[in-house]
Amino acid sequence: DERCILQYQITLYGDDERLVMARDITRLHRLEQMRRDFVANVSHELRTPLTVLSGYLETYGDLAEQLPPRLGKGIQQMQEQTQRMQNLVNDLLLLSRLEIDQSGKDHQPLSLGPLLQSVREDALALSDQRHTITIALDSKARLLGSEQEMRSAISNLAFNAVRYTPPGSHITLRWKDNQAGGACIDVEDNGEGIDPVHIPRLTERFYRVDKGRSTTTGGTGLGLAIVKHVLLRHDAQLLIESHPGKGALFRCTFSASRLS
Ligand code: ADP
After folding, report:
1. In testing the pocket of ligand 1, which one of 198, 224, 227, 243 has its CB within 8 Å of the most ligand atoms?
2. Would you state the pLDDT for residue 3?
3. Residues forming beta bridges with residue 18, ordered by sequence position
4. pLDDT of residue 1
5. How many whole angstroms from 202 Cα to the centroid of ligand 1?
6. Is the CB of 146 within 6 Å of ligand 1?
7. How far apart are the C-alpha atoms of 9 and 21, rounded to whole Å?
8. Does 171 or 32 have the greater pLDDT score?
9. Any idea of its EC number (predicted)?
């Protein structure tokens, strides 16, 4: 395809002078597209072998009591690592789908009450009931969006709140109107918080504050990148507010045009 992609930058000087610069970004765009397709294809191809592996490991896991202890422990570790790889591949695939497919064809009016309730139940299961999670419904508006994508974004935020706060911490899931006529979903915790120096980079793929700790929490390092992309597809903004020792607030803000 012979099309060329140009990026324009217009700088204003005073009232009647402008500097227009055009940059040919065709090559950059194509490389970016190749990277996305590559990640999507590799993730897709890895799914089947991982399913076969985890199937066999589950069968062997059922026989663990009849096996020598070292072998049983090895199988358990293989199961855990295979699960980690499956989570990673699923998140990579989801992220590339969010990047490649730009359309919002499955957008419909969503009631946040049932959605937050079901995320709460999943998060409580992950926490093994060691956290308290409350829901605050302070808006009657319905959100025009994709249920699957919004569930995935809110779950990522709620699961992080469980993973990165000590047992006994409190988490709030809130849907509320804002002064600009829009509404926001807040996921707030009263855990250890995040040093503000890390905040601008948190939504980068694989960026983690504490690498060592994060690998044991079951996260893939892609959670907040997924949240960012889901919000982009809903014309929404993510605001992260936190200070060490003071908990964290993740706020997703939707404009009035996204509400019904
Ligand atoms: P992952 O959780 O898989 O490491 P994410 O992209 O979901 O990846 O999160 C990036 C990092 O942000 C985490 O590794 C963690 O250090 C930090 N983080 C996210 N949510 C919280 C939270 N509620 N409290 C403290 N730190 C958090």
Report:
1. 224
2. 83
3. 12
4. 57
5. 7
6. no
7. 5
8. 171
9. 2.7.13.3
3-state secondary structure (DSSP) of residue 69? helix
Residue 146 tokens read as 């994709």
pTM assigned to the model = 0.89
What digits encode the pLDDT tens for the residues 7-54?
Answer: 999 999 888 899 999 999 999 999 998 998 999 999 999 999 999 999
Rounded distance between C-alpha atoms, residue 155 and residue 153, angstroms: 5
Provide, for the chain, the percentages of residues in helix, strand and coil under a 3-state DSSP scheme, each rounded to the nearest 5.
50, 20, 30
Q: Is the CB of 161 under 6 A from ligand 1?
A: yes
Distance CA(103)–CA(81), nearest Å, equals 34
DSSP one-letter string for 155-211: HHHHHHHHHTS-TT-EEEEEEEE-TTS-EEEEEEE-SS---GGGGGGTTSTT--SSH
ipTM exceeding the 0.90 mark: yes
